[in-house]
Amino acid sequence: MRTFEELVAEGEAVPTEGWDFSWFSGRATEERPPWGYAGLLADRLGHASRSLDLQTGGGEVYAGALARPARPPGRVAATESWSPNLALARLRLAAWGAEVAEAADDGPFPFPDAAFDLVSSRHPTVQRWDEITRVLSPGGTHLCQGIGSGTHRVLADALLGPRPGPDQPTAELAAAAARAAGLQVVDLRVRRCRVEFSDVGAVVHFLRKVVWTVPGFSVERYRPQLAEVHRRIERDGVFVSWSQRYLIEARRPD
């Protein structure tokens, strides 16, 4: 059995670029929401002529969905803010002639009004509903799987200590913001998903990759807390946390 120090060193050494989570195979699992976002996106792409994916990461999910319909959109575009991911997305989406624009997550989109009939986003850090509405053509659709408030609160509390107050109803807030921006919400779903970490190295890599879980995370800063997580995994077999996911589909009126 590998030691705490060996596992932590391994988790620190793994590159964090892109949104490929295959490294976690056999070391962490996450329950998936029942609606199947990738399948829903592939279906919408099969009916779209101009598609934009926001905060695409390395383009992994977008490319997978684009490969599924018999007729992908004629125009394919995406945005990404982090330069290592930007390079990966441009390479991965080149087969569809995609324009992958560098754009701040909370900034304006570098595209003209009514440029797309489908705008998608999976796990965005910020949702610019005003910009989504602006770039959607009349009758166009926005499909988003979002991260709900309270995601990995159990894991964050293990490092930061318990935090007071309830979690915000993120899906309802997103729906209200979409309506305020002039969109019609046609679907809204919520799911709490079980996540299991089988070793502390997976915890370290996850916290380095999903940086908003514990802002400012480093092994040295949280070594005592990580050692306690390691002891819990040795005792219980896994460390259990929970993710909150919601699906929202909204339409710009004709």
TrEMBL record:
Q: In terms of domain of life, where is this protein from?
A: Bacteria
GO process annotations (BP):
methylation
Q: Which UniProt keywords apply?
A: Methyltransferase, Transferase
Which SUPFAM superfamilies does the UniProt entry name for this protein? S-adenosyl-L-methionine-dependent methyltransferases (SSF53335)
State whether keyword Plastid applies.
no
Report the GO molecular function annotations: S-adenosylmethionine-dependent methyltransferase activity
User: In what residue span(s) does the Methyltransferase type domain sit?
Assistant: 52-143
This protein is called what? Methyltransferase type 11
